[in-house]
Automatic annotation (TrEMBL):
Record GO biological process: isocitrate metabolic process; tricarboxylic acid cycle
Xref: Pfam families: Iso_dh
The keyword Glycoprotein is assigned to this record: no
Occurrences of domain Isopropylmalate dehydrogenase-like (ranges): 55-362
Molecular function GO terms recorded: isocitrate dehydrogenase (NAD+) activity
Biological classification of the source: Eukaryota, Amoebozoa, Discosea, Longamoebia, Centramoebida
SMART domains: Iso_dh (SM01329)
PANTHER family in the record: DECARBOXYLATING DEHYDROGENASES-ISOCITRATE, ISOPROPYLMALATE, TARTRATE (PTHR11835), ISOCITRATE DEHYDROGENASE [NAD] SUBUNIT BETA, MITOCHONDRIAL (PTHR11835:SF42)
Organism: Acanthamoeba castellanii (strain ATCC 30010 / Neff)
Keyword NAD: no
Protein name according to UniProt: Isocitrate dehydrogenase subunit 1, mitochondrial, putative
Amino acid sequence: MRRTSAVALSRTSTSAACNARTLSRMLATSTGTEAPPASLSTGVRRGLALGSEIPVTLIPGDALRVPIKWEVFERVGDITQNFDLLTSLARNQLCLKGQLKTDYEDSEHFKNNNLVLRKSLNLYANIVPIKSLPGITTRHSGIDMVVFRENTEAEYSGFEQEVTSGVVQSLKVVTRAACIRIAEAAFGYAAAAGRKRVHAIHKANIQKMSDGLFLESVREVAKKYPTVEFKEMIIDNTCMQLVQNPKQFDVLVTPNLYGNLIINVGSGLVGGPGLVAGANYGLHGEAVFEPGARHVAADIQGANVANPTGMLLSGVMLLRHVGLNEQAGRLEKAIHDILLRGKVLTKDVGGFATTKEFTKAVINHL
C-alpha cells in the first residue's frame, strides 16, 4: 500500500486543485458530507492534524490499516508565527484540521487563524455536502445537497477601518476571477457527478455591484453547461426555502458570507453541526479537511461530549481525496451503521454516549 504525506502541505497524487474531475471523484462517490474518517484524538479536534502518508483517520491503533504519518499540531497559537506548522503545510499541501477559535473581543491583537490559513493557501473553494444521515431523525428526510462557497473574499476580505469616532467602514471586495473560479468548480462538479441543478445565491437586488458581479459571472459559466439546470435565488428567500423545502436544492454556489449562513442552516436541517463534514481546496492541489459547520463549541471543550461524526466524515473525504476509496467506504459504512443502530449516540442527537465512546464504537465496528 502506498504512503502519502498528509500533513500540512505535500502534493498528493490527487494533483492539482479543484477541477471537476477531482471534485467528482471525491464528492460524488461519497454521498456524503457526512462522516468522514478522522480519528478523533483530542489533539486533532483542537488543532491541526496533518498526516504524511495517506490521509486516513487518527483513530487510535489505525483500525483501517492505512499507512499514514501524521504531523500533529495541538497548539497553533498565532499561525503566522508558527513556522513549523507553516512549513508542514507548505510541504504536504494536505491537512486535517480541527476548529480554531478566534478571540474576536481582543480587537487590538485580533488575528483570525482560519482566515490566515485559507488566504495563505488560497483555499478558494469551501465545499460542504449537506446530507441526511441514517438513524438521525429530523423534520425533513432525504436531504442531499452540496454547497460551493467562495472562501477568500467578499465580507471576509478583512478590510475595515474607523472613519471617525463612532463610524466604521468594512469593505466587501468581490473579483470576477474569484466568482468565475467558484462557479466553474460548482458546475464542473454538478456535470461530472450527475447533479441536476445549480442555484446561485445572491443579494444583487440590493448589493447591485458586488453581488451583481457574482451573479453575472455565474450566469456566464452556466451557459457552458447546458445539461445542468441553472437557477438564481436571493439569500433571504433561500433561508426560508431551505427550512420549508430543502429537497429542491441540489448544488448551491455562493459568495463567502451567504455560504456560511446556508451551511449552518443546512447543518441544522440534518441534525446539527456535529454531523457535517467539509473540505477546502486551493488552485494547486492544496486540500484542508475540517467539520463543515466550523463550530468551535468552546463551551463544551474538554467535556468529552462533542459529536465526532463530522470530524470522522471529514477524514472520509480526505481518504477519498488521496484515492483510498475502499478504506473510506469502510469507515463511512461503520459510522452509518453505528448511527443507524442508535445504541451509541452523543447527546446532541438524543443519546448518552461520550465522544470517546462513539469513536470506540466506530473503531470496533471496523
